[in-house]
Design a protein that fits this description.
It comes from Duganella margarita. It is a multi-pass membrane protein. This is NINE protein. This protein has seven helices and no strands. It is mainly α and about 140 residues long. It has one domain (about 10-135).
């Protein structure tokens, strides 16, 4: 007796939402590709990297100590945008080829895209401005 295992359908809206909310920890990578995804481990490596920076440079500004986590979070927002704007047919070809279902995303993914753009762009601008402040003025403006 043979049991056929049909792969689960990967929801594009859920993947974009996971990238928006928990993208800094790689939740969308875990949902889409599982534990063997190397980019999941790159996201998770931000936590020990931040700890390592804090241990090696305890006198450094807190921004530098959190920089690996901040960068991973910004990448998560970018991944939410990429996932959200992927056409449904290309999404299904990549993630749902054997699921037997077709994606049909509607307005919820647009809400995730707008939120990702707003918070991601704001976070990127804030990160760059703080980084330049610390590099060029030694933190004179904050």
């Amino acid at each position: 007796m043979t049991v056929l295992h049909q792969p689960r359908h990967k929801n594009k809206t859920l993947a974009a939402l996971l990238a928006f909310l928990l993208g800094g920890l790689g939740a969308q990578r875990l949902y889409l590709r599982g534990w063997r995804d190397p980019w999941l481990w790159a996201h998770l490596a931000c936590l020990p990297a931040a700890s390592l920076v804090a241990q090696l440079a305890p006198q450094a500004d807190g921004f530098y100590k959190l920089l690996p986590i901040i960068v991973s979070g910004l990448v998560g927002f970018l991944e939410a945008l990429i996932i959200g704007v992927t056409p449904d047919d290309k999404w299904d070809a990549r993630h749902n080829a054997d699921s037997g279902q077709q994606s049909n995303t509607h307005w919820p993914v647009a809400v995730v895209l707008v939120a990702s753009m707003m918070i991601g762009a704001g976070g990127l601008i804030a990160t760059l401005s703080r980084l330049f402040d610390l590099i060029y003025t030694g933190g004179a403006y904050g």
